[in-house]
Amino acid sequence: MKPGAWFRWALFAGMGLLLSACTTLPDPAAEEARMRRDSSRYIVLAVANPLESISSRVGTSLSGYGAPPRYVVGSRAAQTMAALAKEYALREASGWPIPSLGLHCVVFEIPPGAQREELMAVLSRDKRVSLVQALQDFETHSEPLSGVSYNDPYVLLQRGFVETHAAQAHQISVGKDVRIAVIDTGANTKHPDLQGRIDSSSNLVDKNEAAFLQDRHGTEVLGIIGAAGNNGQGIVGMAPGARLRLYKACWYPPAGTGARCNSFTLAKALVEVLQSDARIINMSLGGPPDELLNQLLAQLLKQGRLVVTALPSNQQLSGFPSGVAGVVVVGMNGVNGMLAPPNDALCAPGRDILTLEPGGRYDFASGSSMAAAHVSGLVALLWSQAPQLERTDILDILARSSTPQVDAERALLNLRSRQTQALNR
């Protein structure tokens, strides 16, 4: 009996007919919308994929293997995936290649009545399968909204900007031309304080441009990192000279206030970032451990990039991405001046932070998401001054400059001291 045959026979006895893997796929946008509404019936499955040639586009459906193909993948991977879909009665939702891992991934909907954990256990023993996991949900780490000389009128109201001595640090560096990738929700890229600040944006969730521009969380994070300075309005970002790239991988569900992401959208975003020259990646979000996402993040770290993430609300350094070794985890100041972050996590302002909001507005936001954004901007200040620094050097400077909250001015002065010592050796 072939691998998994006993499982299929037991599951579908009496059903009469298995679902076909060769049926015409539904509209991709509608399919991905179903995934976002309820991920509990979906799995991510990957097989070895010896690439022949491939484009940089991600999120292409497996059905694209027809002529003319949108990308060309080894026939073995295509045949293997089609065979698995047929044998396990899986229905394809979407697929995409990950050339950096040598894999082809497909999100499948599991059959009606199947138990996802049991099915994944069977698939994990199938020698053709390189990776199988649940399509998991993640969320941004924010809380509900509460109540140098710059000509920006609200700069003195920026608690985080003032507490980290960012204005003083800007006497030395504004993060000029350092590339920062922000994986988040969409954002009001047309906000007056973001004009000329964003090099590119990608929507990896849907094609809803109106919703993209109204997304709050990404707007808040971008504002803290890189709002324009000395434009006579609003606020100033931690790194007003940095170049920003936004990847929308999270969305707001119809019910509830928190933004959500899943394994599929986050993987697409990480693949795109791998193909970019962004040196800093801000991920103000988190969720359970995720094997596929861990592998992609490991690729970014191996390339010497620095990944900044927000401390989860349970303050446990576990899950994705906070549990991945090498990631910079940032928590926010606690109530009454108590510092919340445990262990090796950094601490930055995160409560009642004045930042940008959709519609060209400004308001206060709270959460470790905001704390992480402060650190991403601070790292850009350092790398702009000393691009040859390794990630470990950056982490050492940040740790030595924290009192215990990160301090931009102190970090730049520590960098100068290191440079002077190096010259005198």
Outline, from the CA principal axes?
globular
End-to-end C-alpha gap: 70 Å
Rounded Rg: 23 Å
Helix content: 25-40%
Main beta sheet: strand number and arrangement? 7 strands, parallel
Q: Can you identify the CATH superfamily of the largest domain?
A: Peptidase S8/S53 domain
Look up the CATH topology of the largest domain.
Rossmann fold
Low-confidence residue ranges: 6-25, 53-72, 335-341
Protein name: Peptidase S8/S53 domain-containing protein
Active site: 184 (charge relay system), 217 (charge relay system), 369 (charge relay system)
Organism: Rhodoferax saidenbachensis
Family: Belongs to the peptidase S8 family.
Could you explain the architecture of this structure?
This is Peptidase S8/S53 domain-containing protein. Keywords: Hydrolase, Protease, Serine protease, Signal. Belongs to the peptidase S8 family. This protein has two domains: 131 residues, no CATH class; 285 residues, Peptidase S8/S53 domain (Rossmann fold). The protein is 32% helix and 19% strand. The protein is built from 13 helices and 17 strands. The chain is globular, with a radius of gyration of 23 Å.
Keywords:
alpha/beta, single chain, seven-stranded parallel β-sheet, 425 residues, Rossmann fold, four-stranded antiparallel β-sheet
